[in-house]
Amino acid sequence: MKTIKIAIAGLFLLIANAAQAQVSVNVNIGSPPAWGPSGYAEMEYYYLPDIEAYYDVRASQFIYFGGGKWVRTTRLPRQYRNYDLYGGYKVVLTDYHGRTPYTYFDRHKVRYYKGYHGAPQRPYRPRPVYAYNHGHDNHRDNRHHDKHDRHHKHDRHDDDDRRDHGHGGHGRR
Asked: Residue 46: which of 3, 103, 108, 2 has the closest Cα?
Protein backbone atom coordinates (compact mmCIF):
# COMPACT_ATOMS: atom_id res chain seq x y z
CA MET A 1 0.00 0.00 0.00
CA LYS A 2 2.87 2.34 0.89
CA THR A 3 4.50 1.63 -2.49
CA ILE A 4 1.32 2.60 -4.34
CA LYS A 5 1.14 5.91 -2.45
CA ILE A 6 4.78 6.67 -3.32
CA ALA A 7 4.16 5.75 -6.97
CA ILE A 8 1.08 8.02 -7.09
CA ALA A 9 3.02 10.86 -5.44
CA GLY A 10 5.86 10.38 -7.93
CA LEU A 11 3.43 10.37 -10.85
CA PHE A 12 1.78 13.52 -9.50
CA LEU A 13 5.16 15.30 -9.29
CA LEU A 14 6.04 14.17 -12.80
CA ILE A 15 2.77 15.58 -14.18
CA ALA A 16 3.23 18.84 -12.23
CA ASN A 17 6.75 19.27 -13.68
CA ALA A 18 5.48 18.59 -17.21
CA ALA A 19 2.71 21.20 -16.78
CA GLN A 20 5.22 23.74 -15.50
CA ALA A 21 7.52 23.08 -18.47
CA GLN A 22 4.58 23.62 -20.83
CA VAL A 23 3.82 26.98 -19.24
CA SER A 24 7.45 28.04 -19.63
CA VAL A 25 7.41 27.15 -23.32
CA ASN A 26 4.21 29.15 -23.89
CA VAL A 27 5.63 32.22 -22.16
CA ASN A 28 8.79 32.13 -24.28
CA ILE A 29 6.90 31.92 -27.59
CA GLY A 30 6.10 35.36 -28.97
CA SER A 31 8.50 37.49 -26.97
CA PRO A 32 8.12 41.23 -27.55
CA PRO A 33 9.97 42.74 -30.51
CA ALA A 34 13.03 44.86 -29.75
CA TRP A 35 11.05 48.00 -30.71
CA GLY A 36 8.09 47.09 -28.46
CA PRO A 37 7.49 49.19 -25.35
CA SER A 38 9.32 47.95 -22.25
CA GLY A 39 7.33 46.85 -19.23
CA TYR A 40 4.74 44.86 -21.18
CA ALA A 41 6.42 41.49 -21.72
CA GLU A 42 3.22 39.42 -21.70
CA MET A 43 0.92 41.52 -23.90
CA GLU A 44 -0.74 40.07 -26.98
CA TYR A 45 -1.28 43.10 -29.24
CA TYR A 46 -0.04 46.61 -29.92
CA TYR A 47 -1.99 49.15 -31.91
CA LEU A 48 0.18 51.46 -34.04
CA PRO A 49 -1.92 54.63 -34.43
CA ASP A 50 0.33 56.37 -36.97
CA ILE A 51 -0.19 53.60 -39.52
CA GLU A 52 -3.53 52.25 -38.22
CA ALA A 53 -2.18 48.73 -37.86
CA TYR A 54 -1.79 46.10 -35.15
CA TYR A 55 1.09 43.91 -34.09
CA ASP A 56 0.42 40.41 -32.80
CA VAL A 57 3.21 39.73 -30.30
CA ARG A 58 2.54 35.98 -30.02
CA ALA A 59 2.59 35.40 -33.79
CA SER A 60 5.19 38.13 -34.56
CA GLN A 61 2.88 39.52 -37.26
CA PHE A 62 1.59 42.88 -38.33
CA ILE A 63 -2.13 43.14 -39.03
CA TYR A 64 -3.25 45.89 -41.39
CA PHE A 65 -6.13 46.62 -43.71
CA GLY A 66 -5.23 46.14 -47.35
CA GLY A 67 -7.01 44.98 -50.47
CA GLY A 68 -10.40 45.19 -48.77
CA LYS A 69 -9.51 42.84 -45.90
CA TRP A 70 -7.33 42.54 -42.80
CA VAL A 71 -3.96 41.00 -43.67
CA ARG A 72 -1.39 39.32 -41.40
CA THR A 73 2.28 39.50 -42.45
CA THR A 74 5.70 39.42 -40.82
CA ARG A 75 6.61 42.75 -42.46
CA LEU A 76 4.84 46.04 -42.87
CA PRO A 77 3.39 46.79 -46.30
CA ARG A 78 5.45 48.74 -48.81
CA GLN A 79 3.78 52.09 -48.08
CA TYR A 80 5.10 51.91 -44.49
CA ARG A 81 8.62 50.67 -45.27
CA ASN A 82 10.12 53.89 -43.84
CA TYR A 83 7.98 53.86 -40.70
CA ASP A 84 10.14 54.05 -37.57
CA LEU A 85 8.93 51.27 -35.27
CA TYR A 86 11.25 52.44 -32.49
CA GLY A 87 10.05 56.04 -32.65
CA GLY A 88 6.37 55.46 -33.39
CA TYR A 89 3.95 55.22 -30.50
CA LYS A 90 2.61 51.77 -29.58
CA VAL A 91 -0.69 51.43 -27.73
CA VAL A 92 -0.57 48.26 -25.64
CA LEU A 93 -4.01 46.65 -25.83
CA THR A 94 -4.50 45.37 -22.30
CA ASP A 95 -8.24 44.77 -22.61
CA TYR A 96 -8.35 42.43 -25.63
CA HIS A 97 -7.62 38.70 -25.88
CA GLY A 98 -8.46 36.86 -29.07
CA ARG A 99 -7.41 36.62 -32.71
CA THR A 100 -9.06 39.70 -34.26
CA PRO A 101 -8.16 42.93 -32.46
CA TYR A 102 -9.37 44.86 -35.51
CA THR A 103 -12.93 44.04 -34.41
CA TYR A 104 -12.55 47.24 -32.36
CA PHE A 105 -10.68 49.20 -35.03
CA ASP A 106 -13.37 51.91 -35.20
CA ARG A 107 -12.90 52.58 -31.48
CA HIS A 108 -9.11 52.35 -31.61
CA LYS A 109 -8.92 54.71 -34.59
CA VAL A 110 -10.89 57.40 -32.76
CA ARG A 111 -9.37 56.97 -29.31
CA TYR A 112 -5.79 56.56 -30.57
CA TYR A 113 -5.76 58.90 -33.56
CA LYS A 114 -2.78 59.38 -35.92
CA GLY A 115 -0.13 61.26 -33.99
CA TYR A 116 -1.43 60.02 -30.61
CA HIS A 117 1.15 59.83 -27.82
CA GLY A 118 0.32 58.67 -24.32
CA ALA A 119 2.89 58.17 -21.59
CA PRO A 120 6.54 58.20 -22.72
CA GLN A 121 7.81 54.82 -23.93
CA ARG A 122 11.18 53.15 -24.01
CA PRO A 123 11.80 50.25 -26.37
CA TYR A 124 12.10 46.72 -25.02
CA ARG A 125 15.70 46.72 -26.30
CA PRO A 126 17.72 49.71 -27.52
CA ARG A 127 17.77 50.63 -31.17
CA PRO A 128 20.61 48.77 -32.91
CA VAL A 129 23.66 50.83 -33.77
CA TYR A 130 25.69 49.75 -36.75
CA ALA A 131 29.35 50.78 -36.57
CA TYR A 132 29.91 49.93 -40.23
CA ASN A 133 27.21 52.32 -41.48
CA HIS A 134 29.39 54.93 -43.15
CA GLY A 135 26.34 56.69 -44.55
CA HIS A 136 25.35 57.59 -41.00
CA ASP A 137 28.76 59.15 -40.35
CA ASN A 138 28.54 61.12 -43.60
CA HIS A 139 25.10 62.33 -42.58
CA ARG A 140 26.58 63.66 -39.36
CA ASP A 141 29.25 65.50 -41.36
CA ASN A 142 26.59 66.96 -43.63
CA ARG A 143 24.75 68.33 -40.63
CA HIS A 144 27.88 70.26 -39.74
CA HIS A 145 27.94 71.74 -43.23
CA ASP A 146 24.22 72.39 -43.11
CA LYS A 147 24.68 74.47 -39.95
CA HIS A 148 27.28 76.51 -41.77
CA ASP A 149 24.96 76.88 -44.76
CA ARG A 150 22.09 77.89 -42.50
CA HIS A 151 24.27 80.65 -41.10
CA HIS A 152 24.72 82.06 -44.61
CA LYS A 153 21.02 81.69 -45.30
CA HIS A 154 20.39 83.45 -41.98
CA ASP A 155 22.48 86.39 -43.19
CA ARG A 156 20.42 86.55 -46.37
CA HIS A 157 17.19 86.46 -44.37
CA ASP A 158 18.47 89.32 -42.23
CA ASP A 159 18.79 91.39 -45.40
CA ASP A 160 15.26 90.38 -46.39
CA ASP A 161 14.00 91.22 -42.90
CA ARG A 162 15.51 94.68 -43.03
CA ARG A 163 13.71 95.27 -46.33
CA ASP A 164 10.46 93.86 -44.90
CA HIS A 165 10.63 96.02 -41.79
CA GLY A 166 11.07 99.08 -43.93
CA HIS A 167 7.90 98.24 -45.88
CA GLY A 168 5.69 97.13 -42.98
CA GLY A 169 6.44 93.42 -43.50
CA HIS A 170 6.29 90.75 -40.87
CA GLY A 171 9.97 89.86 -40.81
CA ARG A 172 10.86 86.22 -40.16
CA ARG A 173 8.08 83.72 -39.59
From this structure: 108
Burial of 88 (0-12, 13-18, 19+ CB in 10 A): middle
Rounded Cα distance, 138 and 132, in Å = 12
Beta-sheet pairing, 91-92 with 69-73: unpaired
Distance CA 107, CA 103 (A): 9
Separation CA 12–CA 122 (nearest Å):
43
Strand order in the sheet with 53-56: 69-73, 61-66, 53-56, 45-48, 91-92
Which residues partner with 54 through β-bridges? 47, 63
**Per-residue model confidence as pLDDT tens digits over 27-47:** 445 689 999 999 887 889 999
The 10s digit of each residue's pLDDT in 73-84 is 999 999 999 999
CB 34 within 8 A of CB 124: yes
CA–CA separation, 96 and 105 (whole Å): 12
Put simply, whether the predicted model's pTM sits higher than 0.85 gets the answer: no
